[in-house]
Amino acid sequence: MDPLDDIFAAMRVQSALYARLEARAPWGLSLNGGTSARFGLVVRGSCLLEVEGFDDPVPLAAGDCFVLAHGSAHVLRDHPLTPTVSCASAVRDRIGGTVELGGSGTAATVLCGWFLFDRTAATPLLDLLPTLLHVRMDQARAHALQGTLQLLAMETGEPGLGSGLVVSRLADILFVQAVRAHVASAGEEESGWLGALADARIGPALRAMHKDMARPWTVDTLASAALLSRSAFALRFRQRVGQSPLEYLTRWRMFKAANLLRQDGLSLGQVASQVGYESEAAFSKAFKRERGMGPGAWRRGSGATATQ
After folding, report:
1. Which fold has domain 199-306?
2. Contact between 35 and 71 (Cβ < 8 Å)
């Protein structure tokens, strides 16, 4: 299993909102930070994206997509000196529709959205993602994302039976497409975990772990998958991922276990076996060390946790 597949299989968007911004220069829109992730796709024209914590604005051209997975405050505008209006005052009751903004100058169209994740399942991936995912789209990727956003527009513009579920699933797909496109475009130059996935040596070891989480992995067997010596692999893994190989493995075993515990019908012994522990006692000890509570307590409280 690809590591991203492993995570996306557990992640779910709980709610999603959407609006189409039709702007003409001069125009500017400011969006406060929050818990929901933010995304945007420039359909035509261009604009500047200014993200809290970034020194310089990011130029966006037609076809560019951005995702702010951590809900960072940001500004969209046509020029660095253009005043802005708040998103709350500009959008108001036009969620799911068209928002007109600005004067009578050069036109730009930006499809914007917000989505709120199931934090229990999403936290591991969100912790590993950079503040900004900026994808300069080639034609194929632009069409794929635009198609998803067009379906979002239809569902939010003319709600029907099950629209809430459809919108959430489309937001799932949009997020996956954006992360996948970002990884493909950045490759090994990307820092952190996403760059490690693209690393010619570390990537195979990561995929091997996620494919068979229950296998009794050692640093030696993982180094063999990476075609490196034990010491070279351990050093390179920590440099790229920020953790030792076995620390990483334990973290993801507990992530998988936490999601398995939210499902009915699996005993603690079965969960322990699926994530590589021969005894419930060893599994419970590792789970409590990682999560701060035993697996039984986690199972009893996970329903409430999943809806926060």
Report:
1. Arc Repressor Mutant, subunit A (1.10.10)
2. yes
